[in-house]
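Input sequence (538 aa), recorded before submission:
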Amino acid sequence: MKVKFKQGMMNYKKILFFPVLILILLMASCEDEFTEIGSGLINGIEVQEPYIVENISAYNEKIQSVQTNNTALYKLGTYNDPVFGTSETSILTQVTLEDNNHNFGQEPELDSVILTLPYFSNQISQEEYELDSIFGEGSFEIQIAESNQFLRTVDPGEDGDFENAQIYYSDQLNEFLPNIDTGNPIFTSDPITPSDSTSVKVLFDQLSAEIIDTLNVSPRIRLKLPNEFFEDKILSKAGEEELVSNQNFINYFRGIYIKAQQTGNESVMGLFDLVQEDAGITMFYRSMRNAPSLDPEAEDSLIETFNKFNLNFTGIKTNLYEKNELVDLSNPDTENGDANLYLQGGQGSMGVLKLFDGPDSDNDGVSDELDSLRSKNQLINEATLRLYVNQDLAPSSVNRSRRIFVYDLDNNRVLIDYQIDITASPNVPESSRTIHLAPLDENDGNPFYKIRLTSHINDIINNDSTNVTLGLNVAQNVENARLFDVRESETDRIDGLIETSLSTPRGVVLHGTKSENEDDDEDDTKRLELSIQTTENN
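Predicted structure, token format:
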């Protein structure tokens, strides 16, 4: 239906023009790169020098046990960081039946069994993908072992109430190993170099004796497992109770354990998309089945058919960690703050940040500094947290996390600045929410992160919002902001970790609030700093 405008059309255009113009100006003012605000004039209004918050404390918190099931991506391999040490990750996963009580036909015989582990990748051309989650250039051998560890869906609870989902943690490997047959693995691969796998994989799917279908798929590890194991484990149970339902099957075949053993001198860790539909084990087999016929009176005749049956990774999966740590974070200064903040992904470490953490002379629960700021009638134009990389302790740029994440640690939720960031782009996470969480800036040789907390600080000062404690994590994809349970941390003050921190083994060392001030020059300090740009509100 067309709408015609006759009288008043010119007025309509004028009315439309001004909102559009305003929108363009607003968008221009919210670009990724902001102009630094200092003293001077803006539209005739004098802009004051930014206020530097005097009382901030930040300390380290080691994460000793974190939830690793129900994540979007799973790590596999070894990551060696010259500062933090070595992290090894393996995967324990259930396998589930594609369908219950599957009809394998008569005289089924396996042709091959293929394990598929899709990389996390982005397609950049018809024939090429970009692997943005391969950490290192090394190679590894993959070992597959049968697991007899029963993975529960529901936590029985202390009182046997069975009300909550079962959570599995990063530090449970030693608990599970007695139930994993690592001494008699199902399969061990030849060396694999993940960084070489950027092109499409060409697969051949045999539909009949004469017809073969060609498929192009994203990069993945594909391993040919031994037929004998699956003939005994699956085909021999056709029509029996073990394959009648997934409930029966999961109790019968409880899963597999996937471990990557480093080969050579260089380590490598990959991020795998085990939630992808074709992740799992595919059994290709042939059997005899009745020939299709439209004649109801025709005699049955058997023909050879080519089939496949999937054992999926749709059940419980969890990442398990082994660590050789070089940094001792066992004694954080929770009162005054630490000189350096060590942030590392996974079962690593994070920073705890307390703003306006100074004296409270009237004992009202609000620091004198914050009371003073609240008493002034002023607009918060911008509040910026700067965190500088300590290049003396961590000189290698290869191992640094490009993004860090800040969140409300008291309530385990993202900040208002995260929610309102107009650059949010779930489909392009590497450039998403860059107003609030700007990527690492390395342009001048003095790398730093710039975190904008304007709305958060404005709410604290002008709206009497609670001055919550903040958590600092490294980040892989800032859109992955779900909360994951922390079972144990160094001070037991942390009970939740943002999911994005689980997706990367990388870390970074930052100057903390007690970092030494080089040359005693306050203008050149690399200490963690929160600056607030204000104007008087008349």
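Checked by second reader. The CA atoms of residues 424 and 433 lie 5 Å apart.
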